[in-house]
């Protein structure tokens, strides 16, 4: 399996809206994809959540207006995961109007060659942190009870890793031990996530975890110290799953949607006090 891994596009229904009054998120996505003209041999384009910033039907229509033809040109499946800024029910009604889909967007996408992507919806309405219900873990265990011939990739917005910054630790995924118990001994080859907006790697139950850099901005997990900051950059990853350990490479570019055009100027910089306020409002 060759997977193009995108995350955190934060699209708006209002075309005039700018992320932090700075980033045209639709142009950031379009500009990033325009850099990939030579890309080929992709089986799936996997978006690991926060597709939308405002959870509007218009933002999801825009997402598919951009990504559907891009994936079709590659001959790849498009897989979209729900994040904390997304509204699962609105997405379901937008992409499959009239169908009775589950409240949470958990599903399996079969790929040519016998591989599959299993999608888990870790979003919690009105919150920034991630959570999986017991029923979701039981569903996942049932799916993984039958291995896929080409292996399984798990896509979940909130990474099953301890975050690198205080803000993200306050908005992380709970129940890691319970999830690890389900994944142990399964055919999951790699877990793909977003949410943190910066590249990160780790493991859960001995399985590699990869966090893709954000499309709308890239967080600086080291240089901000006790503060939290993001830069006007856009990134994505290429994941290859075959014999041996999965191979992952990432690229980060200056954002095509930056209205200031100054990648050295942070998109935002939160003080430690502001970080505490955000955690109090959106954290567990």
UniProtKB/TrEMBL annotation:
Keywords noted in UniProt: Hydrolase, Iron, Metal-binding
Pfam families for this protein: Metallophos
Top-level division of the source organism's lineage: Bacteria
SUPFAM superfamilies associated with the record: Metallo-dependent phosphatases
GO MF term set: hydrolase activity; metal ion binding
Keyword field contains Metal-binding: yes
InterPro entries linked: Calcineurin-like_PHP, CNP_phosphodiesterase-III, Metallo-depent_PP-like
Calcineurin-like phosphoesterase domain ranges (all copies): 1-198
Family in the record: Belongs to the cyclic nucleotide phosphodiesterase class-III family.
PANTHER family listed in its UniProt record: CYCLIC NUCLEOTIDE PHOSPHODIESTERASE CBUA0032-RELATED, PHOSPHOHYDROLASE
Name by which UniProt lists this protein: 3',5'-cyclic AMP phosphodiesterase CpdA
Organism: Brachybacterium aquaticum
